[in-house]
Amino acid sequence: MWIAPIVVLIPLLCGLSNASPDLGLDISIDYVTQNNPNVLSSANMVGSATSDLQGAIGGYQVSRLNGSTSLIASGEALVSLVGNITLNVNDVLRNISIVASNRQNAPSCMFGSMNATIDRAFVAIDQAGALITLIKTSTSSQNSGALTSWMQMIQTAMTDISTYLDTLYKEVAAVMAAGTLSASTVSANIKPATLFNLAGSISVVTTAEKGLTTTVRSIRSAFEQASNVLNSYSNDMTNALNSVNNTQRDYYNQVVSRINSYQGKVSWEAGWGVNDIVNTVSRVNPFMQDSVTRTTALQLNSSISTTNIAIQTNANIWSTSLQTQMTLLYTGAEAFVQNNIKALVPVFDSSLFKLAATMSVGGTYASNCQSRYGGAIANLENNMRDQLQRCFNDYANTGYTDSFISEYNMVIREQTRTIANRINFCLNLGSTSSNSVIKAGIAKCLSETVIMNDALMKDVSIQTKLVVAMVNLESLATVQRVEACGAIMNHGLVAKATSLDTLLASCQTTNQ
Ligand SMILES: *[C@@H]1O[C@H](CO)[C@@H](O)[C@H](O)[C@H]1NC(C)=O
Ligand SMILES: *[C@@H]1O[C@H](CO)[C@@H](O)[C@H](O)[C@H]1NC(C)=O
Ligand SMILES: *[C@@H]1O[C@H](CO)[C@@H](O)[C@H](O)[C@H]1NC(C)=O
Ligand SMILES: *[C@@H]1O[C@H](CO)[C@@H](O)[C@H](O)[C@H]1NC(C)=O
Ligand SMILES: *[C@@H]1O[C@H](CO)[C@@H](O)[C@H](O)[C@H]1NC(C)=O
Ligand SMILES: *[C@@H]1O[C@H](CO)[C@@H](O)[C@H](O)[C@H]1NC(C)=O
Predict the structure, then answer these.
(1) Does residue 125 sit in the same domain as residue 208?
(2) pLDDT at 9 over 70
(3) Which domain of life does this protein belong to (predicted)?
(4) Position in ligand 3 atom list of the atom nearest CA 82
(5) What are phi and psi of 181, to 5 degrees?
């Protein structure tokens, strides 16, 4: 698209020179620093053209938000384009301004030092096409069309400038070759047309830059508008996700404290049960000494130890299973919630990125569509947050397991009381000084108690397994309830996001 011309400035030795005002010659020349048009005043427009363009881009921070990949590339390209014009292209005009009026060096040196500047300007102009292509991906065709025209104007005018400079330098060299410097050698060798044309081409460049300033302003403002939209929604999304995680953390704490409280209750209950039974041992002691009751009393003594160990063991099994199960319940619910989020976020993002893209291309209806549907995207994020919270609180309430704890504690309480009562019942039948018939009855009663203890402990063990199984089932049911709740929420939100996409698309084309 852009073709750099070859600029031929005849190389001349840099010698000592007379301090000269115009084109390095010690003479005033028409249309260089005086009359209208003149090269100097045209070239001096570079100051305001540069500051206008810099003003249009100054302070523009290209924000690096998710979903703005092409917006980032386009924003950076816009900054580069302006930078290359205000620096590389405009350096040529600055050079011309100095050559037109300064007297620091011999003309050969002054013109010679412009060669590299012109080369850099054309490298920049060559690259402008690629930069405009990048900007195009995020801006309206109107804006990219305007960019292209301004750049074409600049390129054509710069080509002309380099041609006229070349001619001018040859004319200056001819003046110097003529020997005496005078108004007549100047008018014989330097054609006013060269200077008119040079001044005119310079004006085309600065005029195009003024036009470019307006286009750059409008592109920048659309890019910023899009970034603001993305930024505000990405903040909302971050807040929604953090809030879901806080709920999750609260839920985790709830589970942990529930586990601690359940474990405390069970160990308290088992402790009291064991205590009740142990308290009977001192009363059993005398019967262990008596010849009639000795055998069964000793059996009971050892049955009491076995029973107490069994109660503690079962309570521990229950406690451990409870901990494992409730932790699994938490991780199951957490995994489901996080999976939901993973599925939903890209759906919301896609609506959001479409909206941001609309804002950046600055379509006619962009701001209407933003005000109509922008809030709906924020609502989707907030709905996700609220509904996931509800799924946790309503369907994963660990309070549902409370009844299993009470039941289990009741089993322990009943069984241990039965044992203690039964032992006391046997011992209340008489004492070691009772007659042998009564003592035989006590002995029999104690041996039946031993059998009963075994039976009760088998029952406790079965009850423990049952309650553990019930907690397992309840945990599973809890996770399934959270899953079902999440799935319903998910479908609802995806459907809303999809219909929002449709509405947004139609808004973008029809403003409806
Ligand atoms: C100016 O640039 C051209 C093309 O790059 C080159 O041929 C010429 O020698 C250069 N002249 C000076 C004075 O450096
Ligand atoms: C951007 O996306 C990545 C990956 O999807 C995510 O980890 C990150 O949190 C997002 N950043 C913001 C600010 O949304
Ligand atoms: C000129 O554009 C190039 C990319 O084509 C970029 O890397 C460079 O930074 C720009 N120069 C300025 C001064 O902005
Ligand atoms: C032309 O501009 C370049 C880059 O700013 C500078 O190094 C050089 O001295 C300038 N030459 C003249 C004659 O102003
Ligand atoms: C939320 O918690 C999950 C783990 O449950 C973690 O992977 C994710 O990074 C957290 N998200 C935020 C936004 O903190
Ligand atoms: C009764 O049982 C306890 C605990 O097993 C034991 O330490 C104690 O020696 C037993 N008493 C007798 C008299 O065997």
Answers:
(1) yes
(2) no
(3) Eukaryota
(4) 14
(5) -90, 120
Pair 468, 364 in one domain: yes
The answer to whether position 267 is within a domain reads: no
Q: Report the mean per-residue pLDDT for the chain.
A: 87
**105, 117, 118, 162: which to mutate for ligand 4, most atoms within 8 A of CB?**
117
User: Is the whole-model pTM more than 0.70?
Assistant: yes
Q: In the numeric block, which tokens belong to residue 386?
A: 């609220």
Q: Is the CB of 83 under 6 A from ligand 3?
A: yes
- Shared domain for 71 and 216, answered yes or no, is yes
pLDDT at residue 13, rounded to an integer: 42
Three-point CA angle 377, 245, 477, nearest 5°: 100
328-344 residue pLDDT tens = 888 888 888 888 888 88
> Does residue 52 or residue 224 have the better pLDDT?
52
Q: Considering the domain boundaries, does residue 270 fall inside one?
A: no
What is the reported pLDDT for 330?
Answer: 84
How far is the centre of ligand 5, averaged over its atoms, from the C-alpha of 244 (Å)? 9
Atom of ligand 3 nearest to the CA of 128: 5
* Segment 124-142 mean pLDDT: 93
Question: Phi, psi at residue 25, to the nearest 5°?
Answer: -95, 145
**Residues paired with 124 in a beta bridge:** none
Residues 126 and 54 grouped into a single domain: yes
CA dist 221 and 56 (Å) reads: 10
**Ligand 5 binding residues, C-beta < 6 A:** 241-242, 245, 248, 334, 338
Of 63, 64, 65, 66, the residue with max ligand 2 atoms within 8 A of its CB, to mutate for a pocket test, comes to: 66
pLDDT tens string 432-489 = 999 999 999 999 999 999 999 999 999 989 988 988 888 888 888 888 888 888 888 8
Q: Which of 206, 229, 252 is the last residue of a domain?
A: 229
Measured on CA atoms in the order 403, 459, 424, 300, is the torsion positive or negative? negative
Do the domain assignments include residue 54? yes
Domain of residue 449, residue span: 283-510
Pair 60, 187 in one domain: yes
Looking at the fold, whether 202 and 66 belong to one and the same domain comes out as: yes
